[in-house]
Amino acid sequence: MLNSRKQVVFTPSVYESSLRRNRRMPRGLVTLITGILIGAGSYWFLQTNYGPQRLSIEESAKLNASVSELSQTKQSLELQLEEAKQQIDTLRSEAKAMAVVAQTAPSPAEPSAPATTTVESNVFNPITPLPEQAQTLQAEDIAALRQSLPQDPANTPVGLRVGNFTGAIGTISYELVLTKRDESGPDYPARVEMVTEGRYRNGKVGYAHLDPINITADEYVKLSGSVKLTQPTLTPRLVEVRVVNTQNRSVLASRRFDVQQAAPATETPAGTN
Questions:
Q1: Is 215 in contact with 223 (CB distance < 8 Å)?
Q2: How far is CA 79 from the centre of its chain?
Q3: pLDDT over 90 percentage in the chain
Q4: Cα–Cα dist 56/53, whole Å
Q5: What is the rounded CA–CA span in Å between residue 235 and residue 166?
Q6: In degrees to the nearest 10, what's the CA dihedral of 226, 231, 235, 236?
Q7: Which of 96, 134, 194, 249 is the most exposed place for a label (fewest CB within 10 A)?
Q8: Are 243 and 160 in contact (CB under 8 A)?
Q9: Whole-angstrom Cα distance, residue 239 to residue 262?
Q10: Could you give the CA distance from residue 137 to residue 27 in angstroms, rounded to a whole number?
Q11: CA max distance for the chain
Q12: How far apart, in whole angstroms, are the C-alpha atoms of residue 82 and residue 84?
């Protein structure tokens, strides 16, 4: 035993194996990196060939300057439009006042009516008759006259303040006063449509449409006249009045009135004050 010799192999560490380990990158990590690279390349390709073109710094500055210039031009045009509207309103008020003065001025060829002339007053629905001062209306009296008129029960853009109707067989006379609700608002180009309901001699119910009247719904509009119905044997009982905006066909006002029976009247053209 003493003479036996064995070759000793040097081992650096008792914990270290003599076999080398092959260290490789995990397959999942390789797949992730490959997907990221492919996605980034695809996005760059699509953005470059099919996406919207990006503006340069100079083009962006020019576009911002153009937008600013258009905005200033728009503001200037809006100011000019407001000034033009104010001038139109002023000219319209002056023209209306001149027209009222010209209509109320007595004609030299015709003698003025005596002061003792009275107007027959009728009350419908119940609606008070027009005041006497409405016949000689001045522009500065419109506000006071509006307050003296009866209120319209419907809260509509145009109010039918007064509606007096007198009818006989085959004919009807009307007297209407309209005012817009918002005095400071714009005037409405409108059309007044009237449909009368009545009875024929045999007792059947019938209807007749009156010719529409084109108006400008402002602070005060008066309509009056006497017309013959298209059905000469129809006696009117009720009248439905509608005010329609001629621009968008919206109904500005609608109201029904009773018709008082009276003797037939001759036809006179409708008038607007």
A1: yes
A2: 22
A3: 18
A4: 9
A5: 11
A6: -60
A7: 249
A8: yes
A9: 15
A10: 99
A11: 170
A12: 5
Q: Are strands 260-261 and 158-168 parallel, antiparallel or unpaired?
A: parallel
Mean pLDDT, rounded, for 30-58: 83
Cα–Cα distance for residue pair 157/254, rounded to 1 Å: 10
Are 191 and 214 spatial neighbours (Cβ–Cβ below 8 Å)? yes
Instruction: Give the bridge partners for 255, in sequence order.
Output: 241
The token duo for 185 is 């608002």
Q: Does residue 120 surpass a pLDDT of 80?
A: no
d(CA 212, CA 238): 17
What DSSP letter does each residue of the chain carry, written as one string? Answer: -TT---PPPP-S-TTS-SSPP-----HHHHHHHHHHHHHHHHHHHHHHHTSPPPP-HHHHHHHHHHHHHHHHHHHHHHHHHHHHHHHHHHHHHHHHHHHHHHHHSPPSSSPPPPTT--------SS-PPPPGGGGG--GGGHHHHHHHSPPPSS--SEEEEEEEEEEETTEEEEEEEEEES-TTS--EEEEEEEEEEEE-TTS-EEEEEPPPEEEEE-S-EEEEEEEE-SSTT-EEEEEEEEEEETTT--EEEEEEEE-EE------EEEEE-
As given in the structure block, the two tokens for residue 15 are 């914990």
Q: Kindly tell me if the per-residue pLDDT of 136 is higher than 50.
A: no
Band of pLDDT at residue 157, cut at 50, 70 and 90: confident
Q: Are 203 and 163 in contact (CB under 8 A)?
A: no
At 140 the pLDDT is: 53
Amino acid at 265: A
Contact 234, 176 (CB under 8 A): no
Residue corresponding to tokens 């309103």: 89
